[in-house]
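Field log, afternoon session.

UNIT: design team B
ACTIVITY: writing a sequence onto a fixed backbone
BACKBONE:
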């Protein structure tokens, strides 16, 4: 059973969620929410995505089992799937900004910290690049910009225009401007 929540988002419903802070909320996103995964990872959430491992849709039963085993909150646009999950958020928006707005309405903390915590590509933990560590050619000069590297996939990150765009989107959603 879900409880309707979400001012201005009559279709948004959350079930079985006590806290929605990045430090204590692990998430699992269904196949319809891939773009949202990047935003949530940038906000520090441990965000697994249904298509992360092999690009194949695992199916509803496998998603429910994984959410339960890994103690993750399931985010979905599928009403029937949300109703079957022990802890879920049913989203109605189609775009990441609309979905983020719905998550704010049900109490999710959505902001960027001073440093990245999760890889937007694979959800791995991101660590600062140490002095003298080699960086790929696409990365800016490590002496001019602080760089971080995913310990799982090796992708390098920095606070650039994409970071600024996400930060602007989140601030706009929070202030409603």
């Amino acid at each position: 059973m879900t409880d309707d929540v979400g001012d201005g988002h009559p279709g948004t419903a959350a079930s079985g969620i006590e806290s929605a802070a990045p430090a204590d909320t692990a998430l699992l996103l269904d196949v319809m929410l891939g773009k949202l995964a990047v935003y949530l990872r940038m906000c520090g959430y441990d965000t697994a995505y249904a298509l992360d491992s092999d690009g194949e849709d695992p199916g509803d039963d496998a998603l429910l089992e994984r959410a339960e085993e890994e103690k993750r909150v399931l985010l979905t646009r599928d009403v029937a799937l949300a109703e079957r999950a022990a802890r879920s958020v049913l989203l109605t928006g189609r775009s990441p900004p609309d979905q983020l707005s719905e998550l704010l309405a049900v109490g999710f903390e959505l902001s960027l910290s001073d440093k990245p915590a999760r890889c937007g590509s694979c959800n791995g933990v991101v660590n600062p690049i140490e002095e003298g560590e080699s960086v790929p050619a696409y990365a800016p000069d490590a002496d001019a910009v602080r760089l971080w590297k995913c310990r799982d996939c090796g992708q390098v990150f920095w606070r650039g225009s994409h970071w600024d765009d996400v930060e602007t989107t989140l601030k706009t959603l929070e202030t409603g401007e």
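LOG NOTE: The domain at 3-105 is CATH 3.40.50 (Rossmann fold).
NEXT ACTIVITY: expression trials, pending approval
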